[in-house]
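tool_call predict_complex ligand=coenzyme A
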Amino acid sequence: MTDIAAEKSLTIRDVASNDEDVVRDVVTAAFPTDMEARLVHTLRHCGALVLEQVAVDASGAVVGHVAYSRVTPAAIGAGQALQIACLAPVSVQPDKQRSGVGSTLIKASLEKLKELGEDLVLVLGPPAYYPRFGFDPVLARKVQGPYAGDPFMALALTEAGSRDLPIEVAFATPFEEFE
Ligand SMILES: CC(C)(COP(=O)(O)OP(=O)(O)OC[C@H]1O[C@@H](n2cnc3c(N)ncnc32)[C@H](O)[C@@H]1OP(=O)(O)O)[C@@H](O)C(=O)NCCC(=O)NCCS
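tool_result ok
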């Protein structure tokens, strides 16, 4: 169990091979359609995922899921060496939402991404939610790609992640459906 999760009796762990069905159920339940669950499935099976973690409650139930996929820098120069990941989607079982599961999962998974050597994380989501984790729309203006505006935010996990910008990026192919 991570330290962050301990106080909430949540375990944050990497997805296991036998979690596929329960992850699909949690992601499908969190969103209006099964589009995000299909996105996770496709990202996983095309090898685009950098990290996939679940939140497990005290009863052993999977109540949350987060996926990070590889983003490819197209820049020539220092930024070409950056390790960049995209946070999407993040899902919490509807009856467990707004009780800290999503925050605990995101904080713990960002720590893990840092350990993995990722430099920069990008997200497209509510500007009222992600800044609490350090995501910044101003930093994201230095990242050129298919997304722009305040919902597009970036978080540098290393010095290089904010230094070696601006940069042009490409997201994993399955995101083209969402552009
Ligand atoms: C978004 C989501 C992952 C957040 O997880 P959670 O466990 O419900 O959230 P937490 O309990 O950690 O955090 C609660 C805080 O987040 C805010 N919040 C939750 N969902 C939000 C949203 N969609 N937009 C803005 N703020 C949101 C709450 O207002 C609350 O704010 P407060 O702390 O200022 O009171 C979860 O609600 C979810 O799965 N929603 C449906 C799927 C979705 O929209 N995913 C994100 C797409 S980018």
